[in-house]
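User: I've been going back and forth on whether these two constructs are worth ordering. Before I decide, could you fold them both?

Assistant: Sure. I'll take them in the order you sent them. The first construct and its structure tokens:
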Amino acid sequence: MNHDTPLSPRPLHHLSDGRRRVMTAAQLRAHGVSAAETNEHCKPGGPWQQLLPGVYLLHPGPPTSEERLHAVLMYAARQPSPGVPAQPGAEEDRPPYPEAMITGLAALNLHGFAAVPPLPSLDRIDVLVPRLRRLRSTGCIRVLRTPALPTPQARTGLPVAPVPRALADAVADLADAGAVRRLLTEAVRGGHCEPAAVVRALNQARLLSRPHVVDAVDSLLAEGRAIAEDRLYRMVREYGLPDPVWNVDLRLPGGPHLGGLDAYWPEHAVALELDTRAPRPGHRQEDDALWSEYARKREHLERLGITVVHITPKKLRDAMAQQATVVRTALMASADRDPAAYVVVLPR
């Protein structure tokens, strides 16, 4: 008995609407199409064509971008074990492309980046799979492996790597400093992710030893701080907080410098500082020193009776109302505290 022949072949006529015009050899067999019939259909001048090993396009002519992406995922996705019948409804419950997701430039395109080439112009599509998968790059697909797959995000119904991971995979192939800078800047300016997440992904990909990437990261961090400052101004304005003095240095009268602040409410003795640190490899001592400076400044100010509020750019972006409540609570609590020491406020 031929175990490859389905007990009740499903007809192919439903494919005429164009929704699923890319299929694997296993899917064709499930529809009652034998390997010999598939090969016959894929002969020169035939109605079908083979896009990738075991993946077929069920019409002549070039594939659309969507069909290419589906073909890549069909090739890379983990297939069910042969000979093990699926339980009723199991196909609907499992992800359509298990253990595979689009990454790199194609993923950034699907995330809506303007600084990447359009999908039809990409000669290669990167796909991310677990490290132990036995797959080879072929045709338009490049297989990238990782010890731990990130959680994919759905874009146009396809599993796509999160922006930081897709960026790292794209940047790994870019030698043009301008192109790298444009991608990283759009990631932050477009609200796709925070600078720290990008730096973390580049660090994990071991890309921060490349000078043109380091230069782009420096621009990224400056861009991220400017955006966070704009959000801070907006929070004060939109949530009706009292106007602080912005970007100031504090000093004791005739004494030492106490540190710079992003915002300060002198009548309430409340200070606010944006925490925009983004740890980087090779700068560990510098990062430790920066954190020690944060902690020293906070401890010193609080000994003087000044309340210090730290806000990260991510919290400011994702939970602005909550951060405004934190600041408002600190301002209201000032009436119940002992008066703070007198400090000199200078523009920074």
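The second construct, handled the same way:
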Amino acid sequence: MKLSHLLIPVLAVFAIATQAVAADKFKIGYLRVMDDAQAIAAYEGGFYKKHGLDVELIEFKSGTDLIKAIVGGQLDTGVLGFTNAASWASKGADLKVVGGAQHGYHAIVVREDTGIKNVAGLKGHTLASQKEGSTADTVLRGVVLKNAGLKADDLTILGVSPQVAVQSLVGKRVDAAFLFEPQARIAQLIAPVKQIYEIGEVWPFPCMVVITSGDTLKKKKDAVWKSLDAQRDAIDLLQKKPEEASKLIAGYFISEPTLKTLKHGDVPREEVIRDAIKSQTFSAVLTAKEQALMQEIADIMQADGSLKTRDGNPFDVKNIIDLSWQKERKL
């Protein structure tokens, strides 16, 4: 018998064993934005392992794709915008918001040559934002523009990734952008743009939260809680030691060791990310005030027709919030 024939059964067993190991991993989804920094820092800093979890960290390009993976059972938890959970839950999906992540800090930056001085000045211009229906897009339309006396059709809004938004500013394909960190900071370093607005200063909503399915919470509660413990440790590092945290996560946002800037030459990527971390507020806890803001966001979604309940009644965010971990840890 040929050696290759003998190897086939061995390789088959190895493949099955490899799949079993992969299946045992606790899968966490994230987006490559500063809002998800605690998930990345917990992975790179070994916090998941410290709490006894073997984690596979999986990147997604949008919150919509991430929430689909949670609903479909391909992910155990994910750090993403609250509106995704609300939209799917309103259609019958069994989803739970089990912890906080980051408060809503999103800046509007504009090209200096446009002459735009404030949000009202965006009228007639082109703005790059996130995809329609995302948490950022909902707040942009329902809070930022509304408070400035504008409607969404008063300007042209393009739904793109934060990375594409920065490239569009550099290439002068848009006049402004509504950006997460670190993209807002990167844009101001590599393009002739300036910041005219920061929603975190006026309406610090709970932008990113930790979401899981009701089935996962029921079957893997211990593992879900361990993941929240690990992310809380990572948040502690981000808040208290941003310089140390930046060394763990900088490579996720800036591929080269340095960033070539317009006015400051080559800046180490760790320095850029450190400053971005400092500008944010991370919290594993969802306060009563934040839950009220989540309800306000859901109300905005229902008013504009992007969220529809099956029975036509108002959507109650309390139905998808499970703070058992928070209460158990006395946070």
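Notes on the second construct follow. Residues 3-103+207-328 form a domain with the D-Maltodextrin-Binding Protein; domain 2 fold (CATH 3.40.190.10). The radius of gyration is 21 Å.
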